[in-house]
Amino acid sequence: MNAKGERRRLVVFDVEGVILPKRWYLLLEPMIKLNFYQFLTALFLGFLYESSLVSLEFTLKRLYSLFKGVTVEELFGALVRIPLIPGAEKAFRELKQEGSITALISSGLPKLFIDALAKRLGADYSVGLEVETAENHLTGNLFGIVLKPRGKALILGEILAKEGRTSPVECIVVADDRNNIQMFPVCDKTIGYNPDFSVSAKCDYVVEGDLQQIVPFLANSPMKLNVGVSKDEAFRKVIHIGSFLIPLFCLYLNVDRFTIAAIITVVTITYAISELKRMRNFKIPIFSTITLKAAKSDEKWNFAPSPIFFALGIILSLTVFPSRIGYTSIALLTLGDGSAPIVGKIFGRVILPFNKSKSLEGTIFGFILAFSGAILFTTPLKAMIASAIGMIVESIPSPINDNLSMPIISGLIIMAMP
User: Fold this and answer.
1) 293-319 exposure pattern, b = at least 16 Cβ within 10 A, e = fewer
2) Distance (Å, whole) CA 92 – CA 3
3) SS3 assignment, position 107
4) Which one, of 148, 179, 142, 151, lies nearest residue 67 by Cα?
5) Rg, the chain, Cα only
6) Which of 45, 21, 14 is closest to 305 using CA atoms?
7) In the chain, what is the greatest distance between 2 CA atoms, to the nearest angstrom?
8) What's the distance, CA 30 to chain centroid?
9) What is the number of other CB atoms lying within 10 angstroms of the CB of residue 381?
């Protein structure tokens, strides 16, 4: 109970992706201790998990086996160098001031580190992986309830029991990926923070940007759906929509589409190298500057993959499909996918029930603009159908990045039409 005699609210936080950058970035610090083969193995394991091909327990056990022989101090020292998501400390201060109980539950990081993080943030509960050691060196073995399929839900149940609660009233979870959905039935409010496709579909609210922005969503008052567009996001969307010039140049200025695809490929490879360097605090002129200005809020402290998927969508459209079909696909990607989020954040009132990060207004406007561009390269009927399919793909939560799935599926639909 708080000073007013009211039950104190329990706010449960996932750690990777909410308090700290995404899981696959977290590996970059400890991976300093790995050789090149182990590094590739770790990345491959992460890919398999993110693609839902293997379980979290399988991934973590094999991942930590790569760190066999690393000292506790080496691992802990690498982890503490990872920066907090901006707004994390402010968010916890505000929650503490209003009397909330806070908990950190991680299924991917050692309990030793989670305990230290909880102390830094002033969290009341902390749970992490139990990592086996021998003579202060990691053996590669893991254990603990948090590893199990419903481990986080069981742990949250234990916390609720300690707080004397038999219902999920005044229990809120803040999470970003599917491993945390198991806790949703135990809480009466769920917040997806920069969420993946599965959380976007099942959470009550979606929050992007500074972690402190979750605090208003914890209250019971209605939330405004239109949050505006930041300068960085506007800059990113200018690049996105401006890429519509590519098919226009190819069609009307006779620029060879395969040459454009080759140039984009070289730029994309250079960008990927730049991002890896940026993660190690080395900046490549132009590339690193553009990334910091154009990256999504959660990508500023991670490897930013969205531009790579965007480039791949354009490259495949230029090289795989017949020219006009490829140009149509690019029009849908650049104009439809580029405009829908902006309109949704400025004018959005109706959130799509199957994807809390999208709005009906944004989807409708994206369809209109996509159709307006697609009609330059194909018939009105095909442009209309392709635009509708494209925006449906863009709005449906999916493990495949929509920068890639949207142009490919739309292009295949057009090819199948008589």
Assistant:
1) ebbbbbbbbbbbbbbbbbbbbbbbbbe
2) 19
3) strand
4) 142
5) 23
6) 21
7) 74
8) 21
9) 10
Burial label, 19 (beta-carbon count in 10 A; 0-12, 13-18, 19+): buried
How much is the mean pLDDT over the chain? Answer: 85
The residues spanned by each domain of the chain are: 10-218, 231-416
User: For residue range 139-192, what is the model confidence (pLDDT) as tens digits?
Assistant: 989 988 888 888 999 999 999 888 886 566 678 999 998 889 999 998 889 999
- Specify the CATH number of the domain 10-218: 3.40.50.1000
Q: What is the pLDDT of residues 360-378, one digit of tens each?
A: 999 999 999 999 999 999 9
Q: Are 72 and 136 in contact (CB under 8 A)?
A: yes
CA distances, 60 to each of 49, 135, 139, 165, 372 (Å): 10, 22, 13, 32, 47
**Angstrom distance (rounded) from CA 40 to CA 29:** 14
Strand bridging mode 101-110 / 125-134 = parallel
Quote the tokens at residue 280.
């190690």
Angle at 59 between CA 58 and CA 61, to 5 degrees: 70
Q: What is the DSSP letter of 156?
A: H
189 three-state secondary structure: strand
Task: Spell out where 29-181 has E strands.
Answer: 101-110, 125-134, 137-143, 171-175
Distances in Å between the Cα of 185 and the Cα atoms of 11, 163, 294, 351 are 14, 18, 36, 21
Interatomic CA distance for residues 392 and 386, integer angstroms? 10
Element (H, E) at 218: none
HSE toward the beta carbon, residue 190, CA cutoff 13 A: 23
Residues in the chain, how many? Answer: 418
Q: In angstroms, rounded to a whole number, what is the distance separating the alpha carbons of residues 306 and 177?
A: 17
Q: Any alpha helices (H) in 375-401, and if so which ranges?
A: 380-395
Pairing of strands 101-110, 10-14: parallel
Residues 317 and 315: their CA atoms lie apart, in Å, by 5
Alpha-carbon distance 357 to 340, whole Å? 11
DSSP letter for 18, please: T
Residues 37, 42: Cα–Cα separation, whole Å = 9
pTM listed for this prediction: 0.79
Amino acid at 68: K
**DSSP letters along 13-50, please?**
EESBTTTBS-HHHHTTTGGGGS-HHHHHHHHHHHHHHH
